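Is this the right way to post structure tokens for a design question? Let me know if I should format differently. Anyway, here goes:
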């Protein structure tokens, strides 16, 4: 049947180097242009030379009439199908033929396309289209081989891909299982960088040849270009609660990490497997847990990542379940340098996230002398909600702490006090005591920059929602 979205399992259209209205010289279908020896543009020291020579000897591939192979040229879907026909003539049929609207019966590769389809290598696009002249990406060629040869991964897909490729996150979701299987079978050849799969780049004639060699006669491609799962180590973290189990994988790379992927299963069935939308700077694992955050009897998944360094920064990725759609969606919460703690402030068996406002960090002075007014968040209705004003006792205690910090540091000068006074005033506005707070801060800050400091402070508090009509 026709594939609904992606051209998964695209057949190896083997005629690489087709001339207009002619049979492709790569397919071995025309003895008039056969090249049974070497090609003028493939030198003996070429990385793919041994493979290309062997496939030419077997009449699986051919060159052009001028004696060239053109190893860097792209390969069309029709050419790839022709190659599959030549390379795997005995592969059994697994489904009935289909009529592609853009492949007329007299098209040079019509028979090869039908065979590639019937044998499970290639499928089509919606509306029964095959698009035979489209260049084939590397990932589609690998999916085609894995599909037609009935390869299946024996290890978890994410583990295989993360262990083999620096760009594992670029592999489309529809192709991940097949590419993992192809990797385990040593079909994937990456030249010149073994760690770079480049899945969406169009495959070259040389690359397609090496994929075929790895399937037909291994040992002809230099091993330093054959992808394997020994490229990187992969860390796996797991957590579970009730029927929800989460697995987080990533590749540690000193001093950071990358390729974060998450898999969430419910009662043993995978509901989500995807790359995490991680910001570039957040490249260290911090924490993973599964907990009901909003009291709906559905545990949420919380992944904490941080950037490392002396001061910054932590973010949480919170995945909530939508039963109607049987899907997870995530929200990101940036905590900055203070991170957070989970605490049940209301004694209702639901935790609050207690943190500090990261926007104050280094806003009025250096990080070390910055005060961060308290922030309290709840996860409700698939969103994070700022509920700080609901906890006046904690706000008051936080304001007292900032005032004490100011008192301890006031003899050190303006830069040592600006941050603590800003946080204190923010807390006073949260308590609805803004006017009193301003009087105290203005008395406490006698330095030469006081006029500009107060202008900047008022603008900042107003911009960030601390100054309201009820907190003046």
């Amino acid at each position: 049947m026709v594939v609904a979205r992606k051209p998964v399992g695209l057949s190896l259209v083997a005629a690489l180097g087709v001339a207009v209205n002619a049979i492709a010289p790569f397919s071995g279908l025309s003895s008039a242009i056969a090249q049974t020896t070497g090609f003028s543009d493939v030198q003996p020291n070429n990385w793919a030379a041994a493979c290309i020579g062997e496939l030419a000897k077997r009449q699986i591939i051919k060159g052009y009439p001028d004696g060239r192979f053109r190893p860097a040229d792209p390969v069309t879907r029709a050419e790839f199908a022709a190659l599959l026909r030549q390379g795997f003539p005995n592969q059994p049929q697994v489904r009935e033929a289909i009529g592609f609207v853009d492949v007329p019966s007299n098209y040079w590769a019509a028979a090869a396309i039908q065979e590639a389809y019937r044998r499970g290598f290639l499928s089509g696009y919606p509306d029964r289209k095959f698009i035979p002249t489209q260049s084939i990406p590397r990932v589609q060629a690998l999916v085609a081989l894995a599909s037609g040869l009935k390869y299946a991964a024996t290890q978890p897909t994410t583990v295989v891909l993360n262990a083999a490729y620096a760009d594992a996150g670029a592999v489309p979701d529809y192709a991940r299982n097949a590419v993992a299987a192809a990797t385990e079978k040593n079909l994937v050849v990456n030249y010149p960088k073994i760690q770079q799969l480049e899945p969406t780049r169009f495959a070259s004639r040389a690359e397609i040849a090496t994929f075929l060699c790895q399937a037909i006669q291994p040992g002809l491609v230099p091993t330093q270009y054959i992808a394997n799962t020994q490229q990187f180590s992969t860390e796996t973290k797991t957590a579970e609660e009730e029927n929800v189990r989460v697995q987080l994988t990533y590749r540690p790379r000193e001093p950071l990490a990358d390729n974060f992927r998450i898999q969430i299963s419910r009662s043993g069935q995978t509901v989500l497997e995807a790359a995490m939308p991680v910001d570039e700077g957040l490249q260290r694992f911090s924490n993973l847990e599964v907990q009901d955050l909003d009291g709906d009897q559905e545990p949420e998944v919380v992944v904490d990542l941080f950037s490392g360094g002396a001061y910054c920064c932590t973010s949480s990725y919170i995945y909530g379940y939508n039963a109607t759609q049987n899907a997870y969606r995530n929200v990101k919460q940036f905590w900055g340098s203070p991170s957070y703690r989970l605490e049940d402030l209301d004694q209702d068996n639901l935790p609050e996230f207690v943190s500090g406002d990261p926007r104050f960090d280094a806003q009025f002075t250096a990080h070390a002398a910055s005060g961060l007014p308290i922030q309290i968040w709840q996860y409700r209705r698939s969103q994070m909600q700022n509920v700080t004003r609901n906890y006046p006792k904690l706000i008051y205690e936080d304001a007292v702490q900032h005032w004490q910090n100011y008192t301890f540091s006031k003899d050190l000068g303006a830069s040592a006090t600006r941050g603590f006074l800003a946080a204190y005033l923010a807390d006073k506005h949260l308590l609805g005591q803004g006017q009193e707070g301003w009087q105290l801060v203005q008395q406490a800050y006698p330095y030469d920059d006081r006029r500009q400091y107060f202008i900047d402070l008022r603008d900042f508090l107003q911009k960030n929602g601390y100054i309201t009509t009820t907190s003046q």
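Format looks fine. Someone answered above. Worth noting: The radius of gyration is 31 Å. Confidence is low (pLDDT under 50) at residues 1-37.
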